[in-house]
Amino acid sequence: MLTLPAWAQVLWAAVVPASAQDTRPHPAEIDPAMVEYGAARERIGANLEAALGQCETQAEPARTVCVKEAQGREKVATAELHHQRSPSDASARRLAETRVAVNYEVAREKCNQRQGGDKAACLSRASEEESKARAGIRTGG
Fold it and tell me: With a cut of 70, which residues of the chain have pLDDT below it?
């Protein structure tokens, strides 16, 4: 290993600040928004894990609905985070589409718990509501 003479080490220490000599800058010094975004993503993940943990305590028919709801909340929270980070018409539309898709997935899962004609009617109603909501997004309403 190359060692510098004492006078060179003193000169180096005087010219280059100590923080720049041995460490990279903290991410918050680079872009605080990135740190906040990462923390928000971690919170979303932690909320999902907690919700899934609560779902595990439920009996099977309710458990699948609970899991769909938890996953849906995670999808919507992620879409909201992306929209907050870079607001635009396109991200607002994606957020609305995510909400519609999640509502439909949960409704479909709830309908699957039913039997016979009641199940078919429920699925039909859920499909109609999804179509109306998607049409409202396309027309801007």
Answer: 1-4, 7-23, 25-29, 141
| Mean pLDDT, all residues of the chain | 87
- Output the pTM of the full model: 0.75
Is residue 78 a contact partner of residue 44, using CB atoms and an 8 Å limit?
yes
* Unique residue bearing structure tokens 């907050």: 84
Domain ranges, residue 106: 47-139
- Is position 35 within any domain? no
CA proximity to 93, closest of 44, 139, 47, 49: 139
Residue 30 lies in a domain: no
Q: Which residues of 11-41 are buried (b: 16+ CB within 10 A; e: fewer)?
A: eeeeeeeeeeeeeeeeeeeeeeeeeeeeebe
Tokens for 121, please give them. Answer: 């009617």
Tally of domains in the chain: 1
